């Protein structure tokens, strides 16, 4: 084969006879033994090195530095650095071999026979890019670093000459083109397509082209080594030899460009056809009955990445097999969450309860960020990197690779409209809830398995009261409720009203056990920071936001279940509080422990009632704070007893409680009735 003799067959997607014979030779030297290299991670390191080597900015950003330092070849005992150095030394020696270039290239493949195709290419690229980067490092540092200057002199480098710089630039372009080709190979080898029944002929064509591409990458790497060695012999005035060398490198880069274009066209065409299959399969998958969730998860997320998930603790890449037999909750949102408090509340509720330990291993949350546009922006990338490293659950590792067919399916079938949702899939791959985000905000892990039917069950067992309003927000609040204490929750951003209200409540609390909790407003204002310092419990701005977010979720959940304000007490109470906030009204709610009995008041009526405490306060010891409050607010409507009776189920301690008539508001006598 001539050095540039492949132009004649580039226009076709098949291989010429000469190419076919070369591929057969390469396959004879291909005997993988299962050793595994993280090609993606090493490619990232190579790209970082080349970007820094060709940039004047010494402070180039190196991504995933710690991961790269720990990378190695699974199945090989020697460190990765030793392997790369050994390959580099072998290729440098081949520069002085008497063999022709094809024979030298095949010798390198013999050396790499036990590796997969992507690993062969990446290891060779790592060796040549490392040598090139070391050369550039000496050149960049030599003007001001004595050690670098001494090394440059020993290597007899003359980096200030025009011939040297032009040749170095041509060499850089060639290596960057090899890097593009390696990325294309990895793009194919990282596909997960067996479940989509791909075109076998197309697959074999691509594999043959990958063999050929790998050959030319190795051959070009050997050529690069020769030219890096020649750079040490360049003398001033040697323009002819330099011009020939630059032409040789440029011609080789042109050849690689043609090979790359052909391989890219084949791979992109295959992916396009597979995406069409994904779109069709997703529609049919959710109509079928399955034994597990693996086929569904693979179709959704694994087309372009065999390891589509980022592990929640170590940040390692993992496959969807980690989700086998589990309930999976897909948190779908934009890469930039609407507010930090919204995702902090989800984290808080998903990890705050003891039930989380007992249910650990039964379910997992996977964050699926979807860009608002066709292409991801730098801002979205930064936001994703930050949040995915903070969240205590899985996230898509490279969300920009998510198949367009999957994105369209999520938007159309799961009704994603850019507001965060949580779609729940059971262990068999069936969708049991199209949005469980409100369930998680309200009940946390107690909502497991997060299905729509579970949501209805939870509401049937739930009553309006302090426990529902404040559950899980703050440990001290939880303790007060468990102890059955009187608690007053109030909200306002009017400093004058807050001071007046607080002074009156201080008078009441002198003779009554009463805890005050300030919850401000949904939108935090600066003046909310200047409320009286002696309030019993001043929640942080974040926990105040938690309180309001949970109320919003309660209203959304009730409305989604078809409830109305006229027929549902909880929805009525929640809507009233949210309306107070929207209309900038001052309000307070009084409750006792886990009881469903509460009193809600707002504005002037609340202050007027507090002013009359000397009149009704004497009844607190006999009837309790809430009943005394209620008697003051709603005086008896009849002059005498109404003779009304009411039968309620027996519970422990009920005989000692004082119950009030709903008609005349007077205390009722209690009797036990046996059936």
TrEMBL record:
Residues 18-288 form the Sieve element occlusion N-terminal domain. Residues 453-674 form the Sieve element occlusion C-terminal domain. It comes from the Eukaryota. GO terms for biological process: phloem development. It holds the Pfam family SEO_C. This is Protein SIEVE ELEMENT OCCLUSION C isoform X2. The gene is LOC115749397.
